[in-house]
Amino acid sequence: MALRFFGKDPETNGDHCPTVWLDEEKQEFVVQGWKADAALQAECLTTGPIPDDEAVVRLPVRMVQQIREACDAAESTAFR
User: Fold this and answer.
1) What local confidence, expressed as pLDDT, does residue 14 receive?
2) Cα 45 → chain centroid
3) How far apart are CA 27 and CA 42, in angstroms?
4) CA-based Rg of the chain, rounded to a whole angstrom?
5) Domain boundaries, the chain
6) Sequence-separated (6 or more) residues with CB below 8 Å from residue 69
7) Dihedral of the CA atoms 41, 44, 46, 49 (nearest 10)?
């Protein structure tokens, strides 16, 4: 696995915080975020089931820059 780190939530102390990576080999985003509470999961379920091997996580909007950089990198490696 070739994980490329893009950043952590800029408003945290660096531990236990939302993080964004790109798995360049599998062409997948990898995110660490806060677990969704029951109310958010219920709202998400209105559009369809959440399989047992998937989870709803939250990332703060202030991480747009890290997410954008990961998206740009994914786009540039997708056409190699």
Assistant:
1) 77
2) 19
3) 29
4) 14
5) 3-77
6) 6, 7
7) -80
Mean pLDDT throughout 21-31? 93
CA distances from 16 to 19, 61, 68 (A): 9, 17, 21
Look-up of token digits 């531990």: 15
14 SS3 class: coil
The residues, ordered by sequence, that sit 6+ positions from 35 with a Cβ below 8 Å of its Cβ are: 55, 56, 57, 58
Confidence (pLDDT) at 52: 95
pTM of the predicted structure, to 2 decimals: 0.84
Q: What average pLDDT does the segment 2-30 reach?
A: 91
For residue 27, count other CB atoms closer than 10 A to its CB.
10
